[in-house]
Write a structure and sequence with these properties.
The protein is mainly beta. 10% of the residues lie in helices and 38% in strands. The chain folds into 3 domains: 94 residues, Immunoglobulin-like (Sandwich), CATH 2.60.40.3780; 102 residues, Immunoglobulin-like (Sandwich), CATH 2.60.40.3710; 142 residues, L,D-transpeptidase catalytic domain-like (Beta Barrel). The N terminus is likely disordered.
C-alpha cells in the first residue's frame, strides 16, 4: 500500500484539538444532575451510579425507617430533615452503599433527603428527594411514673400506662431505654393496670441500691401500637434518684408496723389491719407506697364495701389502687396493737401516722404478712410486681 505522509503542521493541529477536548471531557465527568424524571444519569465510562430513597411520595404510611441506597457507587453524605428542620440521624453501612435512619418516619410529617454519592468510575452524584407521611388516625398517649427529678424509695418501678390498647407490645418495648448509674439489672413486664388499661413496668431484679440515678427514654414517636391503639407522636423521658433504703414491715398477726432504714429498726408502731373473715381483710405481700395524699375523703362505696364509712382521713398513704392505705384511724384506737378491725387499711394513731408520713417517700415498700388476708397484691393493683419471682417477672416481657 502507498504510504500517506502526514505533515508536521497536521500533527500540531491534531494535538491542539486533543488538548482542547481534554478539559471538556473532564468537566463532563463531574457532578451529573438528575434527569427530569428524577432518575440518575450515568457516569463518564457508562456505568451509572443510582441513588434511591424510600419511602417516596405523598401521604405514605409512617412507621418505617428512611433508606438511601447507592447502586454502582458509594454514598458520601446523607442528610434527612423534617419540616421543622430537625435532622433524622442514621448510619451508613460499612460498604458505603446504603444508609438507614435510626428512627422511623413519624405520622403527619414532611421530610427532605439530600444525598451525595460517587460512582465506581469517579462520577459525583447529588440527589434530592422529599416525601410526606400520612397523619395519625388515632393517637396513643402515655402516663408515666415516677416524675422528673424526684427521689424515690428502693421499690419504685418505672411505670407507663397507655391510653389505648397496645397490641404491638414487642415493637413498643424495643423503644424503651432504661439507663442507670450502676448498671442495675432489671426487666420490663406487661401487666393489666387496675384501670383496665395496658401497662408496662420496669423493675430491678432486687430493690434499688440507694443513690442509683435512673433515666427513662421512651423513644415512641413514630411507633404504631397496633389495632385500636393508634400511633405515638412524641417521645417521653424522665430521670430520678433512689433514696435511702427504707422498708416498712407490717405483721398483721401481731398488729405491729416496723420502719427499717438501712437494715436497722427505726421505730415500731401499734396498728390495726383489715377485719378477718371477709371483704374487709387487708392484702398481704409487698405493696409499694404509691403516693402520700394527705387528708382525703374515704368513702367505702367507692371500693365496694357499701355504706360502711364516709369520712375525712389524715396522713393517708396509698398502697394499692383498690383502696388499701396506711393512715391515721383514731376511731379504732382501742384495737391498735391487739386486733384487726379496719375496713382493709392499716390504721394507727394520729401521732404515729403523722410521724410515719414524714419519714416515707413514694417507692418505699410495705412488706405485709398475716394469716387471714385477701391474698397477695396483684402486679397491676398499684406496684405489685415484687410479688412475682424474678423469672416470673421476666416472662412478662414481650421480648425474648
Amino acid at each position: 500500500m502507498p504510504r500517506i505522509r502526514i505533515s508536521p503542521h497536521a500533527r500540531l493541529r491534531a494535538a491542539a484539538v486533543a488538548v482542547l477536548l481534554a478539559p471538556l471531557a473532564a468537566c463532563s465527568s463531574g457532578a451529573s444532575p438528575d434527569r427530569a424524571d428524577g432518575k440518575p444519569s450515568g457516569d463518564a465510562d457508562g456505568r451509572p451510579v443510582t441513588v434511591t430513597v424510600t419511602p417516596s411520595g405523598k401521604q405514605v404510611p409512617a412507621g418505617h425507617p428512611v433508606r438511601v441506597t447507592a447502586t454502582g457507587g458509594r454514598l458520601t453524605s446523607v442528610t434527612v430533615t423534617d419540616g421543622e428542620g430537625h435532622r433524622l440521624a442514621g448510619r451508613t453501612a460499612a460498604d458505603g452503599r446504603s444508609w438507614v435512619s435510626d428512627r422511623k418516619a413519624v405520622p403527619g410529617a414532611a421530610y427532605t433527603v439530600r444525598a451525595a454519592a460517587r460512582g465506581e468510575g469517579g462520577t459525583a452524584k447529588n440527589t434530592s428527594a422529599a416525601f410526606t407521611t400520612a397523619p395519625a388516625g388515632r393517637v396513643n398517649k402515655v402516663d408515666w411514673r415516677p416524675g422528673e427529678g424526684t427521689t424515690v424509695g428502693v421499690a419504685q418501678p418505672v411505670s407507663l400506662v397507655f391510653d389505648h390498647p397496645v397490641k404491638n407490645k414487642a415493637a413498643v418495648e424495643k423503644q424503651l431505654r432504661i439507663t442507670t448509674s450502676n448498671d442495675t439489672e432489671g426487666s420490663w413486664g406487661w401487666v393489666r393496670d387496675w384501670s383496665g388499661r395496658d401497662r408496662v413496668d420496669w423493675r430491678p431484679r432486687e430493690y434499688w441500691k440507694p443513690g442509683t440515678e435512673v433515666t427513662l427514654r421512651a423513644e415512641l414517636n413514630g411507633t404504631d401500637s397496633g389495632p385500636d391503639g393508634g400511633w405515638f407522636v412524641r417521645d417521653y423521658t424522665t430521670a430520678f434518684t433512689v433514696g435511702a433504703r427504707q422498708v416498712v414491715k407490717v405483721d398483721l398477726d401481731r398488729h405491729r408496723l416496723t420502719l427499717e432504714r438501712d437494715g436497722e429498726s427505726v421505730r415500731r408502731l401499734a396498728v390495726s389491719g383489715g377485719t378477718p373473715g371477709g371483704d374487709k381483710r387487708s392484702w398481704r405481700g409487698t405493696a409499694v407506697l404509691m403516693a402520700k395524699e394527705g387528708t382525703i375523703n374515704m368513702n367505702s362505696e367507692t371500693v365496694g364495701l357499701g355504706d360502711a364509712y364516709d369520712k375525712m382521713v389524715d396522713h393517708s398513704m396509698r398502697l394499692t389502687w383498690s383502696g388499701m392505705y396506711a393512715h391515721a384511724a383514731p376511731w379504732n384506737a382501742r384495737y391498735f396493737g391487739n386486733a384487726n378491725r379496719s375496713s382493709g387499711c392499716i390504721g394507727m394513731s394520729d401521732a404515729d401516722a403523722g410521724w410515719l408520713y414524714g419519714q416515707l417517700r413514694p417507692g418505699d415498700p410495705f412488706e405485709i404478712t398475716g394469716e387471714d388476708t385477701k391474698g397477695v397484691v396483684e402486679p397491676g393493683n398499684g406496684f405489685g410486681a415484687w410479688n412475682l419471682s424474678w423469672s416470673q417477672w421476666r416472662d412478662r416481657s414481650a421480648l425474648d
